[in-house]
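User: Run a structure prediction on this.
Assistant: Running it now.
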Amino acid sequence: MPTDRAEPTLILWDVDHTLVSIRGGVSRSLYERAFKKVTGRTLGGLADMAGRTEQAIMVETLRLNGIDEPDALFSDFYAALTAAAIELKGRMREVGVVLPGAREAMASCAARHTVQSAVTGNLRPIAITKLAAVGLGDGLDFSVGGYGDDGSDRADLVRQARKRASEKYGHAFDSRRTVVIGDTPHDVRGAHDADALAVGIATGRSSADELRAAGADIVLTSLTDFTGRCGEALGW
């Protein structure tokens, strides 16, 4: 899938289990703090997070904890999650790791005619905080990404990122020039539903076979293979 060198390629990175792994129960701690602040109660059940957006996770989590009209709490809960992420940045730094090949893959993209940003289920400030905690994120234009408060469907996040990037950079970023890199079938389906190239990275819970079955255009076992395997497809 070669690209026209006159046009940049939009590279959209997932964050968790694609670029970084934040361990030590930080994800649950974020929700425990936010839930306590917004409701005054202790968090019980927590929705599955893999490949899902913050909006979808929040709605299911609130319902699991007996809140039948979660929409009314969106604004307060988003603010509480963001505050919790800032409070836990030191903990993220202690337990977070940059996944193999991530720095090199991002540097390889930066050396070429690309715009790099994020398409992630995280809220924008949480994505920025996670990446900053492990010294990653320089070179990403977070203003044109797609984030967990843009919708429950990951395809909507990709569409929103493309729209923002097109408005800022003056390029269409069509299907040949939009690439989504993520570790779950949700990332793959979201990319394809938004007419983008899907690169699956088997560094999370989903295996390479599961990513292939979801229809990933390229499947890698880690980002150490990114430049070599993706270069031909991207016309590098």
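The mean pLDDT is 93.
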